Amino acid sequence: MRKLLLMMVGLPVLAGLAWWYFHQRELSNLDPAYHEYAYVTNGKSNTVSVIDLRTFRLARTLHVGSGPTGISANPNRNEVYVVNSGSSNVSVIDAERNAVVSTVGVHGTPYFIDVSANGKRGYVANSGSNDVSVIDLDQRRVIGSIRVGTAPGLARVSPDGNTIVVSNRGSDSASFIDTRKLSVRGTIPICHEPTDIAILPDSSKAFVACSGSAQVASIDLKSEKLLALLDVGKTPVSLTLKPDGGELIVCNFDSDSISIIETTTDEVSGSYLIGRHPSRGVVSADNSRLYVSNFGSDAVAVYDIDMGKVIASLPVGSSPDGLALSQSQNYLLVLDSQSGDATVIQKRKPRKLEPGEYGLLTMIPAGAQPNNIVVKAFMLTKTQP
Predict the structure, then answer these.
(1) Handedness of CA 351, 354, 359, 364 (dihedral sign)
(2) What is the pLDDT of residues 107-141, one digit of tens each?
(3) CA–CA separation, 314 vs 359, rounded Å?
(4) Do residues 264 and 247 lie in contact, with contact meaning Cβ atoms separated by under 8 Å?
(5) What is the spatial distance between Cα 369 and Cα 125, in angstroms, rounded to a whole number?
């Protein structure tokens, strides 16, 4: 019996040591100039936690504005942008120094920021003032303020950079902004309480989740016409587009399910139970795996897209919400909104003494109510004197 107990205690310890050993081996192979950080907005502590993804340790805590929510990274510059809902401004973080270097004022109660593919502009929907602020990211100043519908929740820019799609939660509509003219081309009614937006890689269609009517709207961006209203589960709160654009995954918070939409045909191909109160999803770069945070069951579901089924349920902290994958796709970061930390889950080919494909690597303390996360990776080059 004593030997059996020692084995029961010792095997998980050895497995954990194996996970950590192989991570350290991977770390030793990295170029010293390579940097990769995760930035976490902490809504109730007015901070951003900076996590070093080479060591999986908290590198720094940055003080930003009041009630930080949305966060986005510049694809062409080593900067990160934080939307402060309580103070109605955007903090600019220099990722090389991990310091706040500027603050840009916008309008009332913003929640999210989207950045154009060329890294030149940021777009912020201001839900309290019914407009969209356009930020010149080179000059770090607002160059336009565009009136839209009531209580806009999100402004998403198309991949070709020509159109901004705005979900107007208070007026059940979507607005379309011409990025060259900085003016509204049109506004159409869609469904009740539109929130999240996904745009196809070729900029041909936009999809908008409507949490109040259990529907997703499909919109043709060339004609700016409603193509279809697709019935999904109760309270669709987030949309996750596969990188290839072929399928769209909907998290139905009050149905404990996901719905999968075929984006070409505008058809719901199926709905699947995924866990209690799914809130966010992220798809791996190879289009094979979907990770879903189940807010109500303190777990993350791993859904194999090719097999069409859940293959794992991974326990995390309390009320998981925001998700992000590391650049290598080998690490999943999960924000535990109630316990105030980030769980790091490692994915790799199982080796001897390892319990399976996924394992808990570590948990990193963040601030109060972490809600959104973005990963920024870059090579740090020495500047010439």
Answers:
(1) negative
(2) 999 999 999 999 999 999 999 999 999 999 999 99
(3) 8
(4) no
(5) 22
